[in-house]
Design brief:
catalytic activity, mainly alpha, Four Helix Bundle (Hemerythrin (Met), subunit A), 0% strand, 208 residues, 80% helix
Length: 208
């Protein structure tokens, strides 16, 4: 999809009765907005002479978050492409045993492939959440509320990508494989929740 289009255009596409864009793209977009929000806090910290002692580290984080933001949007496109393969597999004929076998093989590969982008989204969001915790401790206190917003959006990206994984694993014939993927997703969700809670707690210490 074109990420240069107006936000309203994307929201209209999202709200239309079509399967794509869907939850995977929305999860990636939440991650991109969260990364950009944290990038803003980092940039404000860099610009504040009071935080000269961490300016070098903040410059590193600003560059990393810029790359993360762009990666989230690329992953949104990858998720949509992977869903297209699943949709095509579901439409394959199954009138004969040979056709059923071919369809099952293609669907299994498509479902596994469709889990790749959501896992990449959740892993990237968890990595960004670890940066939220660092920025909450060392960044400018004037933007503490923005760290909370970033953490909340990144946590939503984790939750949404976990749900996208579950939407694929429920149809997998290989249940051992599916269970392993679900366990991995649950672990990422737990880590995301832990990091988000820590970052928000630190960020809001001076706001209460």
């Amino acid at each position: 999809m074109s990420w240069s289009q107006p936000v309203e255009t994307y929201l209209e596409d999202l709200g239309a009765p079509t399967p794509a864009p869907g939850g995977g793209a929305s999860s990636a977009l939440a991650g991109a907005v969260g990364a950009a929000q944290l990038q803003m806090v980092v940039a404000l910290t860099c610009a504040n002479p009071r935080y000269a002692g961490v300016a070098g580290r903040m410059a590193e984080l600003e560059a990393a978050l810029e790359a993360d933001r762009r990666r989230f949007l690329a992953l949104a496109d990858e998720d949509a492409e992977a869903y297209g393969r699943v949709a095509r597999a579901l439409r394959l004929p199954r009138g004969t045993d040979t056709e059923c076998a071919a369809r099952s093989e293609e669907l299994a590969a498509a479902l596994l492939g469709a889990a790749a982008a959501p896992f990449a989204i959740m892993d990237l969001a968890v990595a960004c959440l670890s940066l939220c915790d660092e920025v909450a401790r060392t960044g400018t206190s004037m933007a503490a509320s923005d760290v909370t917003v970033a953490a909340a959006l990144l946590r939503a990206a984790v939750d949404g990508s976990v749900a996208t994984v579950l939407a694929n694993t429920r149809w997998m014939a290989d249940r051992a494989l599916a269970d392993g993927l679900v366990a991995r997703a649950d672990a990422a969700r737990g880590e995301g929740e832990r990091l988000a809670a820590s970052a928000i707690r630190r960020a809001e210490e001076d706001l209460r």
